[in-house]
Amino acid sequence: MDKLAVVPVNGKNPMNSKKPMGQRVKEFVIDYKRQWEIQSMIIPGIIFMIIFCFIPIYGLTIAFKSYTVIDTLDSAPWVGLDNFRIILSDKYFWDAVVNTLGISFLKLAIGFVIPIILSVMIYELSGGRFKKIVQTISYLPHFLSWIVLGGMLIAWFSSSGMFNEILLNLGIISKPVNILLDANKYWWIATLSDIWKEAGWGTILYLAIMSKIDPTYYEAAKIDGASRMRQIWNITLPNMKPIISLNLILTVSGLLGSNLDQTLVLMNSQNRVKAEVINSYVYRMGMTQGDFSYATAVGLGVSIVSVILLISANKVSSKLNDNQSVL
């Protein structure tokens, strides 16, 4: 069947016609009056966003000024791009970038896959009560702060801690060592401890999607003789594709971000060379050393790169999903 043609009316395409601004405003007012009770509920949220999200954007001008605590945003002298030039020549900043990317890529390579595997394993459990127990145990670390978990890790990794006792009894090491003092092991400690804390919580969205899958798909697959692994590969995972793509886009956009709470708890003077990430570096430069202009410039640069990564990841994802974007 041929596609319906759009016939121009008075030289204008009716599909592209736009209403006058006055008419659109009038329709908005009419709709708002009809639903004013519901529409008014969003007003506090809008006010909150304006006060705490949009007005502070003006503070980004500090990145282009030489700001001190005795200045105001308007009185601080402009220095242009000097702060960004300092960043590009700062060795310690680039060390923090390397650490951030190294830890983030490890978390992406390992931590992104584990919640998917864990959610599929939980979904395949047959016992309802046992499934709830497993879910609860996997969620529990998420609700503990890094202060608590960090204290546990510091105790476990100490020279007299649990891990040293296990390694000594297995004959892997001959004398106890404080594992957290070894800078070369920090990336793995940060990655695995973050996965331990967040993997269970990351299964929530996947389990919600899997609960919406039509069970007749599995029944038809069983009739055709498909094994459980074949059902997972051909039914479960394809139905999870949109949410997996969305999570991947958000994870890629956050590659330059890192868990500040985790870093501040686990970092010490011995492992700082491998533990210092961009967020902790910004915190140290801004809050500890008082160089607010430099810290703001670093934060602004990271935000711009993160937006670029977000857009790029979304473009790649849409290409892999038949030009259908999940954002």
From TrEMBL:
Keywords: Cell membrane, Membrane, Transmembrane, Transmembrane helix, Transport
Record's keyword annotation contains rRNA-binding: no
Protein name from the UniProt record: Multiple-sugar transport system permease YteP
Domain ABC transmembrane type-1, residue spans: 97-313
Family annotation (PANTHER family): BLL4140 PROTEIN
Membrane topology: Multi-pass membrane protein
Pfam families cross-referenced by the UniProt entry: BPD_transp_1 (PF00528)
Family: Belongs to the binding-protein-dependent transport system permease family.
Compartments in which it is found: Cell membrane
Annotated TM spans: 42-64, 101-125, 137-157, 292-311
UniProt-listed InterPro entries: MetI-like, MetI-like_sf, UgpAE/MalFG_permease
